[in-house]
Amino acid sequence: MPFAPTRFTNPFKGTLKGGIATVGNTLGLWGMYSPPNGNVRLDTVCDGAGCFTTTNTSSRFHSSYPYGTTGDWRQNSSSNELVFSDAGTNNLVGAYLFYSGTAQTKELDLKTPRTIETTAVTLTTPSNTYSIVPDVVSYVTSTQTGNPAYSAFKNITNDSSLWTRFKNETAGTYTLAGVPAALGDNLKVLQTLSGKPAM
């Protein structure tokens, strides 16, 4: 059964004065495994993210990467500060979430079983934690790696179950976690070297 995206509904009927606040961050580190002797192994050259970032600073995917990394997309997370122009006021009129990643590599396929369309990401705000399933997911094949990548969009304003609480959010730290994505095709080699199972 094909994925049926939710129809976009414009919630605004007139002209609103105000500003737009945006924030973004990365959930992955590019890279390749470099052994202790300094010779780069050609079979581990990465064609995508080498590992994910996580706000868990005790986690380390492999010695090639710093702490705050993981090989499991279910454990990825990233935070940033969202600042509103009118500090201390709750005058939100709209909220939208956009995220993207690699959908498929030789090691992992998140596209065929529709993992991306059906998996909720977690958005933690200064006041609440939300479980968010995307409205729309689109795919494109990367011209650099040949792997399919995806973009996901959620109109929080149109989802009454979310917007009822979200419209009262304030400036502060926002953390997105559990974003589905496949690492580059050096993943299996790194997991073998680190003794960690494939995700």
Written account of the structure:
The chain has helices spanning 115-118, 160-166, 187-194; strands at 28-30, 49-53, 69-70, 77-82, 96-102, 121-124, 129-132, 136-141, 148-155, 172-177. It is mainly beta. It has three helices and ten strands; from the N terminus they run E-E-E-E-E-H-E-E-E-E-H-E-H. The model is unreliable at 33-45 and 187-199 (pLDDT under 50).
List the helices and strands and how they pair.
Elements: E1 28-30, E2 49-53, E3 69-70, E4 77-82, E5 96-102, H1 115-118, E6 121-124, E7 129-132, E8 136-141, E9 148-155, H2 160-166, E10 172-177, H3 187-194
Antiparallel strand pairs: 1-2, 2-3, 4-10, 5-9, 6-7, 6-10, 8-9
Report the order of strands and helices: EEEEEHEEEEHEH
Major beta-sheet overview: 4 strands, antiparallel
Distance between the termini: 26 Å
Helix content range of the residues, please? Answer: under 10%
Helix- and strand-based class? mainly beta
Radius of gyration over alpha carbons? 19 Å
Output the strand order for the largest sheet. 4-10-6-7
Instruction: Give the low-pLDDT segments.
Output: 33-45, 187-199
What's the overall geometry? Answer: globular
How many DSSP H or I helices?
3
Kindly report the average pLDDT value: 78
Q: How many distinct beta strands?
A: 10
